[in-house]
Amino acid sequence: MNLIGNIIWLIFGGFVVFLEYMAAGLALCLTIIGIPFGIQCFKIGIMTLFPFGQHVREVPGDSGCLSTIFNIVWIFLGGIWIALTHLIFGVLLAITIIGLPFAKQHFKLMSLSFAPFGKEIYS
């Protein structure tokens, strides 16, 4: 079922969003300061490519104050807008019964894109 969901996700916009995250990650990695943020874009982009069957969890152990500072910077530099976009698409997809699985994936991506530092993706 995950395979079918991922194929439908890719056809209806998942691949375009993946390319956007990759382009943003490459642009951020051009500067030394932007490298940690670019890596997070790559992480979210890979999650966006095949979201069905993947889960997000907090990194075991103490992630430290550096990830908190990076999350705050991330939120102010665009994380809030990315998360709001996933929220809007999730709410719109949740209106229909067919869109509920895709809405769930948008809500999962919303939590990851709001504060990606200190989180990991696992299958």
TrEMBL record:
Please tell me whether the keyword Zinc is annotated for this protein: no
The segment(s) forming the Inner membrane component domain are 4-54, 69-119
Q: Which keywords fit this entry according to its UniProt record? A: Membrane, Transmembrane, Transmembrane helix
Which InterPro entries does this chain map to? Inner_membrane_protein, UCP028777, YccF
Provide the transmembrane region boundaries.
Answer: 6-23, 72-103
Q: Which Pfam families match?
A: YccF
Q: In this entry, which stretches build a coiled coil?
A: none
Under PANTHER family, the record lists:
INNER MEMBRANE PROTEIN YCCF
State what protein this is by name.
Answer: Uncharacterized membrane protein YccF (DUF307 family)
What are the top taxonomic ranks of the organism? Bacteria, Pseudomonadati, Bacteroidota, Cytophagia, Cytophagales
